[in-house]
Amino acid sequence: MLRIGTAIVTAGLALTLLSACAPQGQNSSAPWSAEEIALITALSLSRLPELPPDPSNRVADDPAAAALGELLFSDTRLSSNGEVSCASCHLPERHFQDDLALARGVGETTRRTMPIAGTAYSPWLFWDGRKDSLWSQALGPLESGVEHGTDRTHVARVIAAEYTQAYAELFGPLPDLSKLPAHAAPAGAPDAVEAWETLSEEQKDSVDRVFANAGKAIAAFERTIVPTPTRFDAYADALAGGAATEGLMTEQEELGLKLFIGEGSCVNCHNGPLFTDNHFHNTGVPAVADLPADLGRALAVEQVATDPFNCLGAYSDAGPADCAELKYMTVDGEELVRAFKTPSLRGVAQRPPYMHAGQIGTVTEVLDHYNSAPSAPAGHSELEPLSMSAEELGALEAFLRTLDYDP
Amino acid sequence: MSKSARKWLHLLWIVPVGGLAVGAVMAAKMMYVPADLDLSLSRTTESGLYVSSLEPGISPVAIGSIHSWTVEVTTPDGTPVEDAVISVAGGMPQHGHGLPTSPQVTQSLGEGRYLVEGVKFNMPGWWTLTLSIDGSSGSDEATFNLSL
Ligand SMILES: [Cu+2]
Q: Where does the record locate the signal sequence feature (chain A) (predicted)?
């Protein structure tokens, strides 16, 4: 009697314990705790909030601006050799990147092309965040000597000649650019710099304004580029709704997810529906031998703070109260050295190579990097070695593939 | 803010975190917020000079959005402390890093209340915010815990 009694009590206890840790759906082979469910559902694309407005860009959400921006995005006339457009490196059919370690425009860049989907959610652009808006970002490659290789005066002239009406409808009549030299810019090719110095302040301002507005139209287009749902999102949404998750992910993928949000600490940085905290971290990625030393965020803070096209500058449509990210940005400290922006992991397995200069060739090798956590070539790596088994690393890789886009 | 002031701020940050270091090492492999964490947003400062309270400007405090907080400072008997110089620091004890932004007190709102702008948290987990208060009764500080 006594023994049966104990058995019943024990069974009762065990049941209570079980139900304390099991989620709503008892179907899953990987029972999730309430904390885990919260972390998983926070990663779902259906949790992506509406795109926040960009007060620095008056036409950010104007469909006519997006239409003009889409044309500019693939216009090769906006380059020194007539062959390079944004779409040369950000290939729309390749998730807006180019599958290369270093990008090729009129020359070769020192960093890898970043995919564009969802980047409108980021307060900082580029691997080092040296731009604080999409429109200001777009001006960079146009004048980069290795990307479009052109200059703002040429861009303004192309706009005036080819997009007169679309421009005027959005931004008002174009200034008279006919007396300007063919090429002029405050930095870049010596001839262009010399020509720039001959311009009046008023002429410089009118060129800068057309240049900035071209960026604003391109930004309006980029704001329409958003990620599409994946198998992982279906799983997370089922879990959130208490529906059956069977058949949506394999057991191996579920284990990978568990490690991603748990022991692997991946979710510390790759968090939210875009799998990025849009912040900068030194993860000990090796330097590239033939390239100049890259200090990442540490050099970018000064650049963005003094950029005439930043949120507080003359060409921004924002009021000072709209520029909190810039005003309260951290400008010094060891944490900035060789810190790079956390990339989104959506579609990541479909677009090797990886890291800011394409240093790592495959997802498997990326996971080996996290497993051993080498010390950083400069600054201090935030990672600790994971010391995971091959099985666990395989599970993490399988999980990352649940973020593949439909072909 | 001057560079040296920032350095000093950084040191202030190390003091409370230093106290937590033992716990942090033990918690290093722990993914979740310690269960017994005191999440009270009203605290007596370390040396008992002030009572300080924090109130977030957004609710819930969302990861990734930059926002402001209101700080209220009184003496232990409840008298509002005006004209205090307050600085804010913080970070994640389990991860050994600071805040992603550099928040600042931008306005005194009267009656011992102050506006802190530029606060942001970029990860889920346990965060601390430390207020260093220099006011009529001297300098003191208080560290608050947040669970995001
Ligand atoms: Cu952290």
A: 1-22
